[in-house]
Amino acid sequence: MARVTLLLGGNEGDVKRTLQAAQQLVNARVGAVLRCSHRYESEPWGFASAARFSNQALEITTDLSPLEVLDAVQRIECDLGRNRAAEAVEKASTGAAYTSRPIDIDIIFYDDEVIREERLAVPHPRLAEREFALVPLCEIMRLRRHPVTGETVGGMLEALRKKRER
């Protein structure tokens, strides 16, 4: 059994309902939800949008491999209305790296594994730069150590906030 940390987010449609549905589908298709943070709102990261994001962290246990988890959460995203082809068109037209979406599910940690493959990078490579991810993660695993840097989730959040204040 692997312990996996997921970050759910979205800023289109009924985000509260979508995140609830995503959590239920993760529990049914990926693995048992052990812990779940509250929902936190944040400004879009990496692009401009009037719609704020809601984000939520989950810790689950699963028998699935890392790539099986990725495939399962991407199917959940699709089932909940995410259209990656339409997002690609919008990103190409705006030049932005990201765009609004009804749901996004990122794999933050998979046990203490370090995975760098074409389709999957775990721990999430930009975790230390993303307050919107660190805040909900801190609620459920403040002392969780990053398997590469050894820094705790809480330490990463404090460092990011100090850096921003400068």
Primary descriptors:
166 residues; alpha+beta; 5-stranded antiparallel sheet
Provide a short characterization of the protein structure.
By secondary structure, the protein is an alpha+beta fold. The chain contains five helices and seven strands, in the order βαβββααβββαα.
Describe this structure in words.
This protein is an alpha+beta fold and 166 residues long. The chain has helices at residues 15-29, 66-79, 84-94, 131-141, 153-165; strands at residues 2-10, 32-36, 40-42, 53-62, 104-110, 115-116, 121-122. The strands form two sheets. Strands 1, 2, 3, 4 and 5 form a five-stranded antiparallel β-sheet that branches. Strands 6-7 form a two-stranded antiparallel ribbon. The radius of gyration is 15 Å and the shape is globular. It is built from five helices and seven strands; from the N terminus they run βαβββααβββαα.
Query: Into which percent range does the helicity of residues fall?
Result: 25-40%
Number of helices: 5
- CA-atom Rg in angstroms: 15 Å
C-alpha end-to-end distance: 42 Å
The succession of helices and strands, N to C, reads EHEEEHHEEEHH
Overall 3D shape: globular
Characterize the largest beta sheet: strand count, sense, and whether it forms a barrel. Answer: 5 strands, antiparallel
Work out the strand percent: 15-25%
Number of strands: 7
Instruction: Name the structural class.
Output: alpha+beta
Average pLDDT across residues? 94
- Could you list the spans in which at least 5 consecutive residues all have pLDDT below 50? none
